[in-house]
Write a structure and sequence with these properties.
globular, alpha+beta, 20% strand, four-stranded antiparallel β-sheet, single chain, binds adenosine-3',5'-cyclic-monophosphate, 7 helices, 40% helix
């Protein structure tokens, strides 16, 4: 499988629970390499732009409100099959359906406050990495 890059966000709920290190350890244990990392408090415009594909969905306003509630940790991850590998490491979007040992099972609260985000396709990964890390090529 090819070496890929993917965008990870440790979301406000996990940062509030002081789980940045625990989540980063799971990422590293999965064999993913942190190529870039930045803690920031997203503006409304940044969150709306990032989740633009979900605009119009019932949960969009709630999602933007949540993502701007407190700081997040943005990471560009790299590795063999990084996009699917990170999605497996995160577990299902709904923490109640996530497998034991995954980030969302361990640290997520519900489908909205689910601890982390990861790109879902090569196209999304390219857009999302350049959205937050335009300096990476
Ligand atoms: P994420 O991987 O960041 O991509 C979109 C996010 O929308 C998703 O994780 C969830 O946190 C959120 N989401 C998806 N479905 C719902 C829902 N039904 N209610 C609230 N938030 C949702």
């Amino acid at each position: 499988m090819a070496i890929e890059r993917t965008l990870s966000i440790i979301k406000p709920d996990a940062v509030e629970k002081n789980k940045i290190g625990a989540i980063t350890a799971l990422i590293e244990q999965a064999g993913l390499e942190v190529k870039a990392m930045r803690m920031t408090h997203l503006s409304k415009a940044q969150a709306e732009g990032f989740y633009a594909e979900h605009k119009g969905r019932g949960f969009f306003d709630e999602l933007v409100e949540f993502m701007t509630r407190s700081p997040v940790v943005l990471m560009c991850l790299e590795g063999e099959g990084a996009i699917s590998k990170y999605r497996a490491t995160m577990g299902a979007t709904d923490p109640a359906k996530a497998e034991e040992g995954t980030i969302r099972k361990a640290f997520g609260s519900n489908i909205g406050e689910n601890a982390c985000h990861g790109s879902d396709s090569p196209e999304s990964a390219a857009r999302e990495v350049s959205y937050f890390f335009p300096e990476i090529r």
